């Protein structure tokens, strides 16, 4: 059944006001009276809803659904600004794979420089991609998207996390293969995890030192060299496998 | 160091003849005498090679390198023909994530119909994508790409596999979450594994029945609905995590 994220205050019945959502509901899906959809408000509970009045965009919330599609831990993916539209892929696939937040920061070896105007535009585009992917993959929460203007701003957020992992190609090359698995096995439910990925050129020695000082663990993600946009998809899949399937 | 797959007979010294490879070596990378690269022949051994003569494209094979980036099991990804360029993404990311073979078959619910001419063109394009990804991710073996004209042709290949897993959304929906993990834990090294994915519309009941009769196990890949091109990336990442990192 079609699912929509609703950013309005929860009330029953509810009149939907977001234009994009209305367009999809009544122009694309052609909903009419008594059709049912799933509405998800900010509390993350999926609710079965019935169209009461398709002209006035009014829905009755029929009942709560006991469906949880969220990872048992809250994973924030932080990417050094990559080139091209790689963040688009991470936004879509990362959302399908359960990430809670997508962050991007200007890494030492980021080639692209984005000014404020460009950042705002990029963020809006990514938020749309995330919303589409979250509705299709039936998430309970809409991942947030955030760009940091400086690396200091980014690192000021580190204190809120229970675990910080830094994907480091050199760790993979030297055959390190247990830090990631050990860290996952010790995670408690609802932990906040930050996963840091470099841009195409990798993570600089200064950054590695700073991340380690801030408590970050360097992890390898297997023996193959993964592109910057592939590594977060690997990590999210591994987290799902470790915490959702292999328990 | 730059790596190239060489489809010629192994000899030392060797004169490289493939035009695309030569273009990358001498036009893009501008190799000159005494520069070093890694050459990988069909035996999967990486060899350090030195340019002896850049005019005649002659290399000396200096020594074998003890580097293995292959998954401990041989994984074949079989996709029901999907729409658009989704196979391109699976070819590139699947190669980075260690797949051995990429197969595509006409599924009951495949929307696209590809004639023979189109199939040949698609296959050539995918082989190029795979080669680029295999060189960048430092694989020892070049994944093969194969299209099947009929589902019967596809299913005739099932006998060669030690394990056949069918990614089935309905399994995920009912909360099944241990078949995949149990199957991976029982895998022996060098096993041949077939992973079957449906097209966008999913796998038909007839197909499910036929695959199960042929020994296939239905597996869920977590509680989120994954797009057809995302599911194989999840499965490959999980296999790497289970067999390479969490051991």
From TrEMBL, chains A, B:
<keyword id="KW-0949">S-adenosyl-L-methionine</keyword>
<dbReference type="GO" id="GO:0005737">
    <property type="term" value="C:cytoplasm"/>
</dbReference>
<dbReference type="InterPro" id="IPR006700">
    <property type="entry name" value="RsmE"/>
</dbReference>
<dbReference type="Pfam" id="PF20260">
    <property type="entry name" value="PUA_4"/>
</dbReference>
<dbReference type="InterPro" id="IPR046886">
    <property type="entry name" value="RsmE_MTase_dom"/>
</dbReference>
<comment type="similarity">
    <text>Belongs to the RNA methyltransferase RsmE family.</text>
</comment>
<feature type="domain" description="Ribosomal RNA small subunit methyltransferase E methyltransferase">
    <location>
        <begin position="70"/>
        <end position="240"/>
    </location>
</feature>
<keyword id="KW-0808">Transferase</keyword>
<dbReference type="Pfam" id="PF04452">
    <property type="entry name" value="Methyltrans_RNA"/>
</dbReference>
<keyword id="KW-0698">rRNA processing</keyword>
<keyword id="KW-0963">Cytoplasm</keyword>
<dbReference type="InterPro" id="IPR046887">
    <property type="entry name" value="RsmE_PUA-like"/>
</dbReference>
<dbReference type="InterPro" id="IPR029026">
    <property type="entry name" value="tRNA_m1G_MTases_N"/>
</dbReference>
<feature type="domain" description="Ribosomal RNA small subunit methyltransferase E PUA-like">
    <location>
        <begin position="17"/>
        <end position="62"/>
    </location>
</feature>
<keyword id="KW-0489">Methyltransferase</keyword>
<comment type="function">
    <text>Specifically methylates the N3 position of the uracil ring of uridine 1498 (m3U1498) in 16S rRNA. Acts on the fully assembled 30S ribosomal subunit.</text>
</comment>
<dbReference type="InterPro" id="IPR015947">
    <property type="entry name" value="PUA-like_sf"/>
</dbReference>
<dbReference type="GO" id="GO:0070475">
    <property type="term" value="P:rRNA base methylation"/>
</dbReference>
<dbReference type="InterPro" id="IPR029028">
    <property type="entry name" value="Alpha/beta_knot_MTases"/>
</dbReference>
<protein>
    <recommendedName>
        <fullName>Ribosomal RNA small subunit methyltransferase E</fullName>
        <ecNumber>2.1.1.193</ecNumber>
    </recommendedName>
</protein>
<dbReference type="GO" id="GO:0070042">
    <property type="term" value="F:rRNA (uridine-N3-)-methyltransferase activity"/>
</dbReference>
């Amino acid at each position: 059944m079609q699912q929509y994220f609703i950013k309005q205050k929860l009330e029953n019945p509810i009149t939907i006001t977001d234009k994009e959502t209305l367009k999809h509901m009544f122009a694309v899906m052609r909903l009419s009276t008594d059709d049912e959809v799933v509405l998800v408000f900010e509390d993350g509970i999926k609710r079965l809803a019935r169209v009461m009045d398709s002209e006035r965009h009014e829905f009755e919330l029929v009942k709560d659904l006991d469906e949880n599609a969220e990872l048992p831990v809250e994973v924030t993916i932080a990417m050094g600004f990559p080139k091209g539209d790689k963040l688009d892929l991470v936004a879509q696939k990362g959302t399908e794979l359960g990430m809670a937040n997508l962050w991007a920061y200007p890494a030492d070896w980021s080639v692209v420089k984005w000014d404020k105007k460009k950042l705002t535009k990029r963020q809006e585009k990514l938020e749309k991609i995330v919303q589409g992917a979250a509705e299709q993959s039936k998430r309970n929460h809409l991942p947030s998207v955030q760009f940091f203007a400086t690396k200091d701003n980014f690192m000021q957020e580190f204190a809120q996390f229970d675990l910080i992992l830094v994907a480091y190609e050199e760790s993979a090359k030297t055959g390190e293969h247990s830090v990631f698995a050990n860290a996952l096995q010790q995670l408690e439910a609802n932990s906040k995890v930050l996963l840091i990925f470099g841009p195409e050129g990798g993570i600089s020695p200064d950054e590695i030192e700073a991340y380690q000082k801030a408590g970050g663990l360097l992890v390898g993600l297997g023996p193959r060299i993964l592109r910057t946009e592939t590594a977060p998809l690997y990590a999210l899949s591994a987290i799902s496998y470790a915490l959702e399937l292999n328990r």
